[in-house]
Amino acid sequence: MKKQKTDSKLYTYRFRIYSNKEQTAFLDEQIGCNRFIYNFFLERAINLFKIHNIKFNYYESKKILPLLKKGFPFLKLANSQSLQVSLKNLDSAFLNFFQGRAKFPKFKKKINTNSIEIPQHFAIDNSFLYIPKLKSAIKVKFHKKVYETVKSVKITKTPSGKYYVNMLVEKFAYSPYMPKKTVGVSTGIDLGLKDFAIVTTGKSLNDKESYKIPNDKYLARTQKKLTKLSRQLDRKIHKRSKRDKTTPSKNYVKFKNKLSILHEKITNQRNDFLHKLSLRVISDSQVVTLEDLNIKGMVKNRHLSKSISDVSWYKFISMLEYKADRFGRQIFKVNRFYPSSKTCSKCGYIYKDLKLSERSWTCPVCHTEHDRDINASINLFLEGLKIGKELTELTPAEYAPAGYQNIGISHHTMK
Ligand SMILES: [Zn+2]
Q: Is the Cβ–Cβ distance between 291 and 332 less than 8 Å?
């Protein structure tokens, strides 16, 4: 068992902001300057490499930054610190590319989500945000209280023209949340296709309950609308290729805008669903066990890909993880080769020939009838129960403050 560093962690809170006309113009200008800097240095880097075979260098680029303001006077209006962050972001994009973690950096486009980061000299009070170079305060809609010190803020503009502020805070392991007493409660989650998840939760084999969480039906409805709208959009007059010189019709632009609003709605709906579900699971259990799925590999499989990306397992797992940290819970991931569907949760018999099409089966040894997915979630629940017992012996969880209960064995594997 490896001890994880849980002294502090960075979190982001996101709030909608409501800027007036003058503030909106200011924000757009700032965002534009930052996009300009990013694209300018990206283009320069490409040319330097093509012509002189010189790689992008952050420090050298940073020195040029003040000189640029002479050639492009509009940059004088921008917050210099934000421009430096944009340059730093380009540096990270190059680093990720050279280390094989990401594709070659792309030019930022006005139609996409754009942002500015403000590392210093901002202030937040009650329901207002103050940022450098803007005299008036911007209204923020706080849907929750921020107790922590805000380390930096980032303002984003979505394609449909909404503005948000992301506040980066540092949380310490000793969390202000005091969760319910859930010592000894294990939860096993089997992620499904037909249902979003199958959950088993309880304190022992005889004291547990299993339930299925269906996929969000509202989401499915919005998605149908989206498909319809995309088809309509394609029928409007617009460019069919890069070389095509056609000017997009007014109707095209109108539909395009509608489409981006709908995209945002889907993201919000999905996040809402995942937030509620992950919070419920985390606040009800001490130990949460799931399969360590190779989602990347599965998404490559064309037949499964649509539903997998739709149900957003990735996002769900990461939400579980950070909520677990916040509430002092443990997350265990069992090796994906662990036969959670094939093992009889009552007697341990392994039904090797279980096919993907078999939704239920009867154990030939103890004659228990199994629903495939529920059986898998019970097995994961049982694994968590075992690990939970080890943990309680290691650290008397009842006496430890929340946060310190997490001794961080998040990558448990079983052979
Ligand atoms: Zn059995």
A: no
> Active site residue: 91, 117, 291, 383, which one?
291
Cβ contacts of 389 within 8 Å, gap of 6 or more:
184
Whose CA is closest to 329, among 181, 139, 126? 181
Q: Is residue 94 part of a domain?
A: yes
Nearest to 200 by CA among 278, 281, 276, 275: 281
Domain presence at residue 181: no
408 within domain boundaries: no
The verdict on 224 and 324 lying in the same domain is yes
Whether 407 is in a domain gets the answer: no
**22 annotated active-site:** no
Query: Distance, CA 194 to ligand 1 centroid (Å)?
Result: 25
pLDDT reading at 247 higher than 70: yes
pLDDT at 308 (0 to 100): 54
Domain extent for 361:
186-394
Residues around ion ligand 1, judged by CB within 5 A, are: 344, 346-347, 349, 363, 365-366
Quick: pLDDT tens for 5-43.
445 678 889 999 999 999 999 999 999 999 999 999 999
In tens, the pLDDT along 178-210 reads: 455 677 899 999 987 778 889 999 999 888 989
